[in-house]
TrEMBL record:
Keyword match Oxidoreductase: yes
Domain Enoyl reductase (ER): 12-322
Keyword NADP: yes
Protein name per the record: NADPH:quinone reductase
Origin: domain of life: Bacteria
């Protein structure tokens, strides 16, 4: 099969397909014919050789993917030809991932689905939807009429979380540092797209004079405490991402958390995205009741380098998706 297999750090332009063996079926696994996959920041990090110790070369990148089951073991609950999605579980880091024509995935990390949507739309969803859904459900318990602030709102997870929260009836304030992305955010149904500049705090106070109910923190420790100061007593802040690069804080004290404000986090896996919910989202998309934020669709493994370069540029809003 063809795959993007790295043996050392490289440039995006050096992501070229090579010929490798199709993975052999193992107990507890299924062989998936890959139809599409999203391109993620963590894969850019891995390509540069800047990942944590769980990543080792040589490696086929790709932390998520969708496709069709090609082979299963006797007695499996899955069937050949069945459509499935997957993400995380060590994909593209500890084990080979989805930048390939076939991927070998543990059955427990597979989400079966039925949909006639284009593979480009379905391929955009797994990682983005899992993280967004986990953050607003497990992390924030979003409900109707909540005022939600999404810091880092033009990121893929920020956009997806905003779309989901808006669909649940929440009012969404979402930030971006790129003024050109405000129109796209508005088109996706975000109630208050805000430019993240020196006037940001005052703008939030104008929109929510009684403070916001909940915050999804995607920028990191560089903005966390400012965001918590905008949350009303009894409200929640969920730390999910660190687009600003600051995941940890030296000399952290619990007393740095404002009194009466709850601070939590989300870092989930495939098991946190229920099969029923994934299929419900696909149905809502088919009915044009939900819009998937897609930046650009690419065709074939030869365009993976372009997809990573475009993602790294920061000029696009939404998910970059490769269809095979």
């Amino acid at each position: 099969m063809k795959a993007i297999k790295l043996t050392q750090p490289c440039k995006a332009s050096e992501l070229v397909p090579t010929t490798v063996e199709i993975p052999e079926l193992k107990p507890g696994y299924a062989l998936i014919k890959v139809k599409a996959f999203g391109v993620n920041e963590s894969e850019v990090t891995s390509r540069k050789g800047e990942s944590s110790s769980d990543f080792k070369y040589p490696r086929i990148l790709g932390i998520e993917g969708v496709g069709v089951i090609d082979k299963v073991n006797p007695g499996s609950s899955f069937k050949v030809g069945q459509k499935v999605a997957t993400m995380m579980g060590g994909m593209g880091r500890a084990i080979d991932g989805s930048y390939a024509e076939y991927m070998l995935i543990k059955e427990k990390n597979l989400i079966p689905f039925e949909s006639n949507l284009d593979w480009s739309i379905i391929g955009a969803l797994p990682e983005m939807l899992q993280t967004a859904y986990g953050s607003i459900s497990q992390g924030l318990h979003i409900k109707k009429d909540d005022v939600l602030l999404v810091r880092g709102g033009s990121s893929t997870v920020g956009l997806m979380a905003s779309v989901l929260a808006h669909h649940l009836g929440a009012k969404v304030i979402a930030t971006t540092r790129n003024e050109k992305k405000l129109a796209t955010m508005k088109d996706l149904g975000i109630d208050y797209p805000l430019l993240d500049n020196s006037a940001f705090v005052e703008e939030v106070k104008k929109i929510a004079p009684a403070k916001v109910d909940k915050v999804l923190e995607l920028v990191g420790f560089s903005t966390l405490f400012q965001d918590m100061s905008l949350v009303k007593e009894g409200g929640y802040t969920c730390f999910t991402g660190a687009l600003g690069g600051k995941w940890t804080l030296d000399n952290f004290s619990p007393f740095m958390i404002p009194t009466g404000i709850f601070l939590t986090s989300y870092a989930g896996e495939a098991k946190d995205l229920p099969t029923k919910y994934f299929n419900q989202i696909l149905q809502l998309i088919e009915e044009h009741k939900l819009t998937v934020p897609i930046a650009k669709v690419y065709h074939g493994l030869t365009e993976v380098g372009e997809a990573q370069a475009n993602l790294e540029s920061g000029k696009f809003s939404g998910k970059h998706v490769v269809v095979l």
